Amino acid sequence: MSLENKVAIVTGAAGGIGLAIARRFVADGARVVIADVDEAKGEAAEAELRETGEATYIHCDVSEKLDVRNLVAGTLDAYGDIDILVNNAGIVVGADFLDLEEADFDRVLSINLKGAFLCSQAVARHLVERVKQGGPAGSIINMSSVNAVLAIANQVPYSVSKGGMNQLTKVGALSLAPYGIRVNAIGPGSIMTELLASVNSDPAAKAKILSRTPMGRIGEPHEIAGIAAFLASDDASYITGQTIYADGGRMPLNYTVPVPEED
Ligand SMILES: NC(=O)c1ccc[n+]([C@@H]2O[C@H](COP(=O)([O-])OP(=O)(O)OC[C@H]3O[C@@H](n4cnc5c(N)ncnc54)[C@H](O)[C@@H]3O)[C@@H](O)[C@H]2O)c1
């Protein structure tokens, strides 16, 4: 159990990739705080995880500083410590570059990027104090995307937010390295969450994705959770400032791969 007795906060863990990470962390022995705006799904996730381990749902909008402060205080109340933060909460707003509303640009950036900064700063302050008192360091993991480097024309704020996430990872890593605190990121390609569920029933949309996926399949949330578990563990003790891409081979691919026709 590589995360035995560790305390982890996972934002956006009421569903999708975040819930897969929370499940994996609990399986690896961690006590997990599910931080999410979706009360119903957050409580359902808490109930599920409590069947096999320790988990607590705390309502938190990561873009609100007060919520983030309460998240850290609530985690310390519940488990007495924090070792791991996963900044996973994220949203998409698709719109043509020429039509995108300022409010939508701000909303995506404030959740995907500013939210990750607020959570990182609040947790890092706790971790640094702990290190100064002779305690262990801890680790922060940011959920980036292949869209940090590649781009989609009608995903303007999303692509910008993920590009920023890679730089947040690097500046965080440099700032916190003197304390031994590691900051890394994961850059998924297309992963089968609710976000992509509609693609399964739309062969043309699926073929489009697969034509850019050399491994010929869409990824599963648990395949991202495995990377988070590795980065959070002592096996990654000398890795900081990196983004690990899990994209079925998309980033090395120029142009497209052939896609077999569906029956
Ligand atoms: N699914 C993919 O293909 C894919 C690919 C690359 C990167 N990602 C990234 O992975 C992360 C998770 O994506 P997902 O596919 O699981 O999405 P999802 O929509 O299934 O889950 C996102 C979760 O974040 C929560 N959330 C939204 N706004 C929030 C806020 N302000 N504060 C706290 N929680 C909030 C939602 O309630 C939800 O539970 C995101 O950062 C996303 O950009 C996903």
Automatic annotation (TrEMBL):
**Which NCBIfam families has this protein been placed in?**
PRK07231.1
Q: Does the keyword Secreted apply?
A: no
Its family remark reads: Belongs to the short-chain dehydrogenases/reductases (SDR) family.
Sorted keywords for this record are: Oxidoreductase
The protein's matches in PANTHER family, at most eight in alphabetical order, are given as: 3-OXOACYL-[ACYL-CARRIER-PROTEIN] REDUCTASE, SHORT-CHAIN DEHYDROGENASES/REDUCTASES FAMILY MEMBER
Residue ranges of every copy of the Ketoreductase domain listed in the record: 6-189
Pfam families for the chain: adh_short_C2
Q: Does the keyword Oxidoreductase apply?
A: yes
Which organism's genome codes for this protein? Stappia sediminis
Any one GO BP annotation for this protein = fatty acid biosynthetic process
> GO molecular function, one example?
quinone binding
Q: Which SMART domains match?
A: PKS_KR
The EC number(s) attached to this protein equal: 1.1.1.47
This chain's protein is named: Glucose 1-dehydrogenase
